């Protein structure tokens, strides 16, 4: 284990090029406060922001809640300084999309320290948007919601937030945090930027949702989700012992995502129904070609679980 907490300096903020260079141990909230004071933001808000650092964002290939508009951490990364296994420091090329040689910067994204230790990084910033608008809808099915959001993105619209919860996740995860009795395929959107552009994008996105059979809900639910977005990971909303829980991240193209969702249901929820297992799935990162299912399984009481050496089919593992 390597502690990089001492590398905690913000080295440079370039307000013209909209970049920040920071050492790997800079905490996410500390960095954001410094940027916000200048009217800027690093548009990367992972659930772990209270504890995560710049180096951790990159080494673990982090995804923030604004990824549908701004991209994941690899899309916000310019360059790195890395301590290599041979004992030296290596600086990657200062800007991305250069025309010389392979893209070594991206080699270290998601490597979790196996190829070298990231000591500093230069990242892309964005201005704090002039307006951020929220909307909430309920789709009649996962298929309807997926198709409406696919059409929205492929027509060129870029909501900053798209979170679609299946019925179980709506009832057991989303509803308790926002303090409402909700069910169905609840979806929250955010639109941001210049006010006229954000409102146009909101209008067109909601039109496409309505064409797919969605019911428009109170937009205040979306705002409440944003204000409480980190509450999902704190008591009493996050699972605690003696519960058993885990997370399953699955990414697939649009032509396969519904089959993947059904397969997860059959593989995880159905075989262990007698344990009281809950599988709460939401779709949290969206692309032109597909989306990601974030599934969390929770067994409320460990004493009711089967032997860990027995598989779903009953065979001894």
Task: Explain the overall architecture.
This protein has 317 residues and is α+β, with helices and mostly antiparallel strands. Helix content is 27%, strand content 27%. The protein has nine helices and 14 strands. Helix 5 packs across helix 7. It is globular and about 55 Å long.
Largest β sheet strand count, sense and barrel closure: 7 strands, antiparallel
CATH topology of the domain at 10-127: Uridine Diphospho-n-acetylenolpyruvylglucosamine Reductase, domain 3
Largest sheet: spatial strand order: 11-8-10-9-13-14-12
CATH architecture of the domain at 10-127: 2-Layer Sandwich
How are the elements arranged and paired?
Layout: E1 10-14, E2 19-23, H1 28-36, E3 40-41, H2 54-59, H3 67-70, E4 77-83, E5 89-91, H4 104-107, E6 117-124, E7 126-127, E8 131-139, H5 142-154, E9 161-165, H6 167-178, E10 185-193, H7 195-211, E11 215-217, H8 220-227, E12 244-253, H9 257-269, E13 278-286, E14 290-299
Antiparallel strand pairs: 1-2, 2-6, 3-7, 4-5, 4-6, 8-10, 8-11, 9-10, 9-13, 12-14, 13-14
Helix pairs in contact: 5-7
């Amino acid at each position: 284990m390597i502690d990089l907490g001492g590398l905690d300096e913000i080295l440079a903020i370039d307000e013209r090029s909209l970049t920040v260079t920071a050492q790997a141990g800079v905490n996410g909230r500390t960095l954001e406060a410094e940027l916000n004071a200048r009217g800027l933001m690093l548009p990367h808000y992972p659930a772990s922001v209270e504890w995560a650092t710049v180096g951790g964002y990159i080494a673990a290939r982090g995804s923030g809640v604004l990824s549908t508009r701004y991209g994941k951490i690899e899309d916000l990364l310019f360059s790195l300084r890395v301590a290599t296994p041979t004992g030296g420091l290596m600086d990657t090329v200062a800007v991305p999309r250069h025309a010389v040689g392979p893209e070594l910067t991206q080699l270290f994204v998601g490597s979790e320290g196996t190829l070298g230790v990231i000591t500093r990084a230069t990242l892309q910033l964005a201005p704090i948007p002039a307006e951020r608008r929220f909307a909430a809808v309920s789709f009649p099915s996962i298929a309807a919601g997926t198709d409406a959001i696919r059409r929205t993105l492929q027509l060129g619209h870029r909501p900053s937030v798209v979170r679609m919860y299946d019925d179980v996740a709506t009832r057991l995860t989303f509803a308790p945090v926002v303090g409402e009795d909700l069910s169905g395929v609840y979806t929250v959107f955010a639109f941001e930027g210049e006010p006229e552009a954000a409102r146009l994008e909101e209008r067109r996105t909601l039109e496409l949702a309505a064409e797919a059979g969605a019911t428009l809900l109170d937009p205040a639910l979306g705002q409440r989700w944003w204000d409480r977005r980190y509450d999902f990971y704190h008591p009493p909303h996050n699972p605690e012992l003696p519960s058993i829980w885990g997370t399953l991240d699955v990414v697939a193209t649009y032509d396969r995502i519904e089959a993947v969702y059904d397969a997860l249901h059959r593989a995880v929820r159905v075989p262990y129904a007698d344990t009281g297992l809950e599988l709460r799935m939401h779709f949290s990162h969206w692309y032109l070609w597909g989306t990601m299912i974030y599934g969390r399984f929770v067994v409320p009481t460990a004493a009711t679980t089967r032997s860990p050496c027995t598989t779903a089919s009953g065979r001894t593992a």
